[in-house]
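Notes from hallway chat w/ T.B., transcribed later so I don't forget. T.B. wanted the structure written out for a chain they're using in a teaching module, and asked if we could keep both sequence and structure tokens in one place. Agreed to drop them here.
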Amino acid sequence: MKILIQHAEILDPASSFHQKEKNVLINNGRIIEIGDKNYTADKVIKADGMKLSTGWFDIGTFAGDPGLEHKEDLESVSRAAAAGGFTGIALLPNTVPCVQTKNEISYLVKGNDTQLVQIHPLAAVTKNNKGEELTEMIDLHEAGAAAFTDGLKSIWHTDIFLKSLQYVQKFNGLIIDHPEDIWLNLFGQMHEGINSTMLGLKGMPRIAEDVAVGRNLELLGYAGGRLHFAKISTGKSVDMIRAAKKKLNVTCDIAIYQPLLDDSLLATFDTNYKVNPPLREKADNDALIKALKDGTIDVLCSGHTPHEDESKSLEFDLADFGMINLQTFGMHLAALAETVAWDTLIEKVTVNPRKLLGLELPKIEVEEKANLTLFDPNRSWLFDERANYSRAKNSPWLNRQIKGKVIAVFNNGRNKIDD
């Protein structure tokens, strides 16, 4: 079936049609025409005012499969990802068992050649994500692990962290770390500041992140290798990473909601805003926006962390950290576009995450495979339980009208169109 995307603005720095409004004709999973003609098609998507990019990619999605399927399984996370605009997701290893053998890798990548949303496993750095003993990373790399991380947990053990950086250099592997001093954050519930004091909640101070970032940069300078910081949140972390980029092979990402939300939202004790790293203050948000603009922040991720009701609908201090955010990613992207250029944002959700993981980069050109996301930043829609494809419901935007909607995704000869 021929599908025509009509009058979309193409955003792909590798394409000769970058920043141009064109008609794009797709047939049998390939782009067969790009131009100004009204090509004959079986289906026409009127895309005035919409952005057409290569398929979005999320570098740190959490799903509970295997072992925690009641939170999210592979089918539900794939549906949510497609609806949210993603044609590729890298899954965190915090499952039961965690992703630490060839069997888990094989289970996750099966069907990647035909699926609309391709899954790329991130394997554990340490056995059972405990931070005490290294996994067989060479074997896991050969089995298809895209990178190595303890996911939602930090690599807290200094010697283990150092050895992991040295170990992956044998195959130019990437270590991804969630920077957090677990002792400084012990029993913490939210950002440490005026609001935590007023609410009577134990705080999670900026220094818990800053100390971990500083330590890890020192170890990277000593050991060499490639290091990526996941979901940074403080102004000082940004400053340290910006300086380190001049001499070290270091990159970082932020959860896309981080520069848009602050800790005042926790005044109602809504556990859906309880995330790690925590929502911080305006000064940190401003620092993150600046870092997005100057390239210090390489990647925007969803921070998608699903939980069942029993883990969220209870007292604030007992609730688990995290929110679902695959399908509401576009809302945040549209909000960030008010202060950050679209070119900059799209690069951080398409090109950069794939480069980090050494994946093939799709391109919007004639005869290329159609790996595309069509996004309408002005479309309002209701994100309710019927529209939510995740198994979880822990989102502060559930049952609310939001602005910014993915209209179509294409990949592997498949598509999902919601026009």
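Follow-up for T.B.: The radius of gyration is 21 Å. Might be a good example for the class.
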